[in-house]
Amino acid sequence: MQGERLFKEAPVWQAIGALVGPSVLSVLVMVIYNMTDLFFIGLLKNTALTAAVAVVGPVFTLASAGATVLGMGGCAVVAGSLGAGDRQDARCVSSLCGWCALLTGVLLAVVLNLFCEPILYLLGTNAEILPYATHYLRILALGAPAMIFSVSAASLLRADGAIRRGLAGNLAGSITNIFLDPLFILGFGWNIAGAAAATMLGNLVASGIYLHHILRRSEVLSLSPSDALRRPARLGRVLALGLPNGVSSLLSGLAGSFSNRLLAAYGTNALAAMAAADKSAMVVTLVQMGICMGLQPLLSYNVGGRNLPRLRAVLSRSFGLTVGFGTLFALFCLLAQRPLIGLFLSDPEAISLARQLLPWLLAGSPLLGLYYLGINFLQAAGYAGSATLLSALRQGVLLVPALYGFHHLLGLPGLAAARAATDLLSAAIALLLFLLVWRKLTSGIRLQTCP
């Protein structure tokens, strides 16, 4: 299989480039994709619409947690099985992940539509925002099965070495959304409902491309129910290895809801300002995440194949790559903050607030890649518990208390300063855990010659 040759035999930089390049490109497309809704809604010059998107955001951050667990956990297990030469296990695991993603999406769609308003009030919605947030959430909920499946399947394709096909699905879904947003929001006058409909259709397009690859092109991935039922207990391993990424998404959504509740005390402009600042800083976080996600199958394969020298070579290069890109993109966002924030906001007060928040959000960004690399390395090495702990620290154990503590000390800017502090501390803890696990790994894996 071409993917296995890439993981095992290609020069290290070539393998990293082949995996990281499309992953980062996918992430940059995702940045545009995530900014599109807010950009076209911003053209309507209604701050309440922007705030509604911000309030609903944590709901789908939480929803993506399940997709991330299945996708990243499945990617790690499938790549490890291929490294060990067990293709039958790879088929079983991929089928389990696919079916669980679809069923989880259906369940989520039902729950969100049944309990829409109570959920929104819990997240800090006020009377001004509620009608817009309700329309946005209900339509997005209908697309939950496609959203969760597309996120999960994209990760599984990386384990199969189908880098271009995964990129094609990501591009097709994102371009669909980007094209339909102005048509639905401005052309048809559907406002925030149009943004939700465009997102839903984009996820359906991406899911169709991933389905075609799994059903027609892949020799490894499967959606056959018989494969899933062969060893259903393997789902436990998927969940254990995917949990660190899922915990991160889950707690990120919870932290976002706590932050929104604190922001609500400052009014609709504050909610909109934080949403715009978050979107502006998103490029740094997602690029570093994309680098590390791209490396996940390469790390897992070489751990599964017990090829320590090649693993060392991949990691040493990856450290410099994540820090370098993190610093570069953080500087870009800081220097371009005025036009970036202006993409989403027109109200002068909201723009001023967003510009106060953005530098704080970027302060820890250059080192954040070490955190993501640490999580992916721990997953690949089989230390799911340590990886889960690391994920929980940044977005929950550290961030939630920091939000309240920094808010007490600094007021509104403290909500952004809390994120910078937790980013830096989490990166330091990740580096420490990496060194501890690396020492254990070097004593437990027989050295081989790096190809």
Structure summary:
This protein has 19 helices and no strands. It is mostly helical and 451 residues long.
SSE run: HHHHHHHHHHHHHHHHHHH
Quaternary structure state of the chains depicted: single chain
Helical content (DSSP H or I, runs of 4+): over 70%
Euclidean distance between termini CA atoms: 17 Å
Task: Describe what you observe in this structure.
By secondary structure, this protein is mostly helical. Helix content is 86%, strand content 0%. The chain contains 19 helices and no strands. Helix 3 packs parallel to helix 6 (130-142), helix 8 packs antiparallel against helix 9 and helix 18 runs antiparallel to helix 19 (412-444). The chain is globular and about 60 Å long.
Give me some keywords for this one.
mainly alpha, disordered C terminus, 0% strand, globular, 451 residues, single chain
